[in-house]
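If I may wish for something, please sit down with the protein I am sending here and say whether C-alpha cells and residues agree:
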Amino acid sequence: MSIHQDGPTGVTTEALHRRAAELDRQDPLATYRDHFIGTDTPLSYLDGNSLGRPLKRTADDVAAFVRNEWGGRLIRGWDEQWLAMPQAIGDQLGRAVLGAAPGQTIIADSTTVVLYKLLRAALAAVPDPDRNELVLDTGNFPTDRYLVEGIALEEGLTLRWIDPDPAAGVTLDQVRQATGPRTAVVLLSQIAYRSGHLADLPGITAAVHDAGALVVWDLCHSAGSVEIGLDGADVDFAAGCTYKYLNGGPGSPAFAYVNARHLPALNQPIWGWMGRKDAFEMAAGYEPAAGIRGFLSGTPAIFGMIAMQGTLDLIEEASMAAIRTKSVALTAFAIDVFDAWLAPLGAELASPRDAGERGGHITVDHPDFSKATVEALWDGDVIPDFRSPHGIRVGLSPLSTSFAEVLDGMAAIRDRLQG
C-alpha cells in the first residue's frame, strides 16, 4: 500500500494521516482498542460487523473456565452456574445494549433458529385467521427471507414484499403502505446488511401496531453499534447474533428478546428439555418453563457466552451513547476519505450520508470491484468484505477500530482502483 501518494482530488495522504491522528488523540474511547488482540499490528481490520476481534481477556477467561469450572467442577457446573447463564447474560445484554428490562432477553441457538422460533411465536400470538400476510423486504439478509418464505409455505400464508432502495433501506412510509388489516407479522432488520441503512425502529414499530400486527426485528448489525431501546419502542420480538460487535467469536450463540407482555402466552415451536419446567426432572409431557426461559430448547453454548461477557462489561463501562458517537465519527471519516479518493475514480457510495440513517458500516460500489479484489486486499492485510455484485463493505467496530486504521484500509482500496 502506498502511504505517500496523493489522492485524485489533491488531498494528500499525509494531510489525512494528520487528521486521523488528531481524531484518534481526541477519541475518548481510544484506549479500549488496547483490550483487543491484534490491534498492535499493521493489519487494517474493516470487517468487525461480520466477525469482531477477540478480547485479550477472552483467552484468560476461556482458559480459566477450562481449568477451574469445566475441569474443576465438572458436571456440578450446571447446577452451580451454567444453567443460569443464558438468562443472566441475556439480562446484561438487555441492560447494556438493547434497552430491555430484566427477564425479556435470553442467549440461545443460532440467529436462524431464534428467528424461526420468534416468527412462529409471533404468528401464534395473532389469533385472527383473516390476518394471513407476512411482510418482509427484498433487501433483507438471505436467512430472514428464506425463513419467512418457508413459514409461509408451511402455513399457507401470503408474502407481501417491500422493495427498498438498495443504497438505503426500508422506510416508514413503505411499511405503512405494505401493512393493513390482513397483516399478521412484519420482519425487518434495524440495519440493512448491505447498505448500512438504519431503519426508524420506533416509528416502524408504532406503524405496525397501528395496523394491528406484530413486529420481529433482526438486530444482527445494530446490537453493539447503535442505541436500540426495545422497551421504549414497545417492540414485540427481536433477535440478533453475538459474534459481530459483541465479540462472542465464530458461531457464538444468538439472543432472543420477547416483550414482557407476550411472555405469559409465549408459544415457541421447538420444544426441548432446557425449555421445560424442571428440566432435570425428565418427566413425561412438555410443560414450558415460566417466562423467557421457556424460549430455550437445547443445551446452552457456554463457551460463546464466556467470550461475550468481556465485551458486555466494556460496553457497560463505555456506554452505548459513547459507542454510537464514535461509530458515527468513524463512518463520517470513511465517507470523507471516500469523497477525496474513491469517488473521483468512479466509485459510488451505496450507503446513507445522513448519520441519523446510517449504522456502523458503509458500502462502496465500483464496476471493477469483485471477490478477487477483496482477496487481494486480504493478502495485503487489509480486511473488508465483498457484497455482490460489486460492493466492498467497510465495517467499523467502535471499540476496536482507530481512525488511522480506517485511513490505511481506504488507501489500500484506492491503490487497487488506481492499479
Observations:
- The first strand starts at residue 44 and ends at 45.
- Residues 351 and 382 are 21 Å apart (CA to CA).
- The longest helix spans residues 320-342.
- Residues 1-8 have pLDDT under 50 and may be disordered.
